[in-house]
Write a structure and sequence with these properties.
The complex is a heterodimer of chains A (403) and B (155). With 403 residues, chain A is of the alpha/beta class. Chain A has two domains: 12-122 and 220-240, Peroxisomal Thiolase, Chain A, domain 1, CATH 3.40.47.10; 137-210 and 242-402, Peroxisomal Thiolase, Chain A, domain 1 (3-Layer(aba) Sandwich). Chain A is built from 14 helices and eleven strands. In chain A, strands 3-2-4-7-1-8-11-10-9 form a nine-stranded mixed β-sheet, sandwiched between helices. Chain A starts with 11 loop residues before the first strand and ends with a strand. The relative contact order of chain A is 0.19. Chain B is an all-beta fold and 155 residues long. Chain B has a domain at 60-147. Chain B has strands spanning 4-7, 25-29, 35-36, 54-58, 62-71, 90-97, 102-108, 122-133, 138-147. Chain B is globular and about 55 Å long. Classes of the chains: A alpha/beta (403), B mainly beta (155).
Chain lengths: 403, 155
Amino acid sequence: MRGGASSVKGDVAVLGAGMHPWGKWGRGFVTYGRIAARAALADAGIGWSEVRSVVGAQTVRGGYPGYVAGATFARALGWQGARVASVYAACASGAQAIDTARAQILAGLADVVLVVGADAAPKGFFAPAGGERADDPDWLRFRVLGATNPAYFGLYARRRMALYGDTPDDFALVKVKNAAAGALNEYARYRTPVTAEEVAASAMVADPLRLLDICATSDGAAALVLCSMEFARRRGVRDPVRIRAVSTVTPTFPRTVLDLPDIGTDSAVAVDPSPESFRASIARTAYEEAGAGPADLSLAEVYDLSTALELEWYEDIGLCGPGEGAKLLRSGATAPGGRIPVNASGGLASFGEAVPAQAIAQVCELTQQLRGRAGQRQVAGARVGITANQGLFGHGSAVIAVR
Amino acid sequence: MSRTRTPVVAGWFTDDAAEEDFRLLGTRCSGCRTVHFPREDGHCRNPGCPGGELEETPLSKRGTVWSCTDGRYRPPPPYVSDPGVPWTPYTLVAVELAAERMVVLGQAAPGVGVAALPVGSVVEVVPGVLDEDRETGTVHTTWHWRPVAADGDAS
C-alpha cells in the first residue's frame, strides 16, 4: 500500500480522540457527549473556539435534542458560531459523521472538525418508535413477527452452523477472546474475563445464541477532533494518525441476505445477485480508497453484535475465505499477539452498543493503537487498522486509519 | 361475544381462504417480473426496471428453510402479548422461495421448534393467529410456516 508514514491526497489527521466510559450511568446523552468531546479536545491540545465545524451522530432515544445532536453538543460546549451538521445511519451513524467531517476538511470548508456521538440506552431489547406505523418496516417486524435484533443474529448464526459447521463452542470462544481484551480497557463496560463454560451456561435468547453471545445496549460517548494535514503540521504534529478511507456504501439490488429490519429479501428473479455480499463490499470499498488490502492490516475493529457475527466479519473484510472464520479464530490469529488481532478494544462484547457512539469509538481504538498508546492492549507495531460495521436499513461503515 | 378476525396487516395474505389455498400475497412488476414481499404498491425497486405496473401475486406455498431461531424472551411492543401470562417462546423461520428467488420471514406454526426446521427442509405457509384482544373480540390473523412431512402430499 501507499506508505503510512507519508500522507496522501485525501488524508485527514486525527488530532484528538476522547471517550466517556460505557455503562449504565443513569445520565443523559448530552452529558456523556460533552465529556467525550472535551476529552478529545484536550487530547488534541486545542481550544473549543478553534473548532470550525461540529458533526453530531444522532440518537433516536433522546427526543428532539437527539435528532439535532450536532447543535445539542455545540450548545452544551457553549455556542461559538461553528457550522453544524447532524447525521443518522443507525449503527453506521458514527462513520457517516466522520465522513461528513472529512468531506468538509477536504473541501476546505473547515480546518478543524469535532465529531461526537453519544447515547443513553434503555434496558433490554431495542424497540421501534411508537405509534401505529404500518408503512415502517422496523415497526412491522416487531408488530407482525416480534423479530428483535437478536432474532436476526440467531438466524445468521444458525445459517453459519448449517453452511460451515460452526458450533456454539466456536461462538463462545469469540466472547472469551473479547472479554479478555475488554478486561484491559478502562472504557469498556464489562471488564471481567469470561469462560466458555460461562457462555454455555448463560440463558438461551435466540437459539443458538445465548445471553453472553449477544451484545448489550449501553450508555457511552466517543469523540474525535479531525483536521487537515496542513493544520496538523502547523500545530507541530508531524506524524498524526490519518484517516485514509471511509466507506459508507449501500447494497446493490437484489439484496439476497435477509437484513434488519426486513421481512423479505429482494427477489432475484429479474437480476442475478452480485457474487459479493453487501458486507464484503463495505470493506472492499474502503480498501480500494486506501490503496490497501487485508494483508496490510495490523488490526481490525469489527461489529460483534453477536459472537457469530464477528466470524462473519473475518470473512467479509478478507482475513480468510467464506466459511473459514471459526478456523481463523481457533488458530489464534485474531487474538492479541496473533497475526491480525480483531477487537483488541474488547469489542461490543465488552462495551455493549451505544449506537451513535460505537463507530466513532472503533476509530478511537484505532487511534490509540496506531499511536502506540493502547497500554496493555497494544498491538505491537500497529500501522494500519480497519473498522467495519453495518447499520440497519442498508448502511455500510468502514474506516481505514494509518500511521 | 362475537369475534372479528382481522389480518394483522391488510393485503399481505389471502383472507378467508381454506388452508390449502392460503398464500402470501406480494406484488409482481409487469415490466421486469421482480416480486416484492412485503408488497410494494408504489414503485418497483429494481433500478434497471424499464417500468411497469405492480400487480398482486400469490407467492409459492412451499419453500425451504434458509435459517431459523426462536424468541425465548418477550419482544417489546408493538408485539402484542399479555404480560400477566408467562412467556411462551415461538420460532421464527426464514424461508427461501425458489420461484420468487427470495427469502421471507415468518413465525413457525405453534409447537414447531427449531429442531423440526433443519436448514434446507421443506415448509409450507398456513393461516395462523397472531394475537387476540379479548376486550374487543378481535383476533389478528397472520401466516405461519409449517414443516411438510417427508411422506406428505408432494403437490
